[in-house]
Design goal:
4 strands, four-stranded mixed β-sheet, Glutathione S-transferase Yfyf (Class Pi), Chain A, domain 2, Glutaredoxin, 7 helices
Length: 208
Amino acid sequence: MTLIVHHLENSRSQRVLWLLEELGISYDVKRYERDRKTMLAPPELKLIHPLGKSPIIEDNGTIVVETGAIIDYLVEKAEGRLGPPQEPQASQRYRTFLHYSEGSLMPWLLVMLVIRRLGLLGRPAHPKVQAMLNQHLDYLEAELSGREWFAGDQFTAADIMMSFPLETARHRAGLDGSRPNLIRWLDRIHSRPAYNASLARGGPYAYA
């Protein structure tokens, strides 16, 4: 049975498609569109998992949710390819950024999204939230000052995890040419053949 990705447009699940392309694992895509008024996932996803969130994968009867857990599952399925490097410090950086993506950076990007949607009501909070995001972006810019990839000299699944928050940061949180290391990193991931193959499989993606 072919692995199935339940893929929501313009969402974290784009990273799962990309990883599958990098690993060369065969898969099918079941694509879902957001509600045009609420921008939430459609109720059909709750038929797959009670939370009704994407990404979800199905693999021979096993259902896996949460992007980080899916990344771990697929790396293990591929016998460790694109997983933590052998070198201890690089391995620790891999694990840090695998979890930092969703645990530290994405919450602030979601707050910024809410503030922007509030319009005038959100303006008083904007400077404080932007200041916190700037702190994160400065940290990440410094991290890439001496290496090309987040874990070390080699591309890993940690880079795939970091893609969605940094793409959205460029879209709505002030990431621009003033942080050249991050922009060059985005250019590198966007030039990868597997990244572009995942876009072809997943459909339109607003943040590429």
